[in-house]
Design a protein that fits this description.
Length: about 130
């Protein structure tokens, strides 16, 4: 069992930056893939970025490619999402998730993640 807790959300002006953190409990986190998803009001929860178990492979949604960076520190049981050049359309609740099935894969599919955090609000003002 893994519990995930996101932090680092907040209000930022367009063009600004934020770093989200995802703190995981349990020793097995280092063997899981990890992803970030976001959900804006009235919309589905969409893929943002994913990283495999050791950080060797990553994937990004086209809308954030070149602006966001996903990373992880397994020694600290923590994942990160660095968000630069933020836009108002990035406003959403951001969730981190853990994929326990295949440690080497980079997973874009929301339904295949096994554990979820409670989310952290990111609001970008214009």
């Amino acid at each position: 069992q893994v519990q995930l807790v996101e932090s680092g959300g907040g209000l930022v002006q367009a063009g600004g930056s934020l770093i989200l953190s995802c703190a995981a409990s349990g020793r097995t986190f280092s063997r899981y893939g990890m992803g970030w998803f976001r959900q804006a009001p009235g919309k589905e929860r969409d893929f943002v970025a994913a990283i495999n178990w050791n950080g060797g492979s990553t994937a990004y949604a086209d809308s954030v490619k070149g602006r966001f960076t996903i990373s992880r520190d397994n020694a600290k049981n923590t994942g990160y999402l660095l968000m630069n050049s933020l836009k108002p359309e990035d406003t959403a609740v951001y969730y981190c998730a853990a994929d326990a099935a295949i440690m080497t894969r980079v997973n874009r599919v929301r339904g295949e993640y096994d554990y979820w955090g409670q989310g952290t609000q990111v609001t970008v003002s214009s």
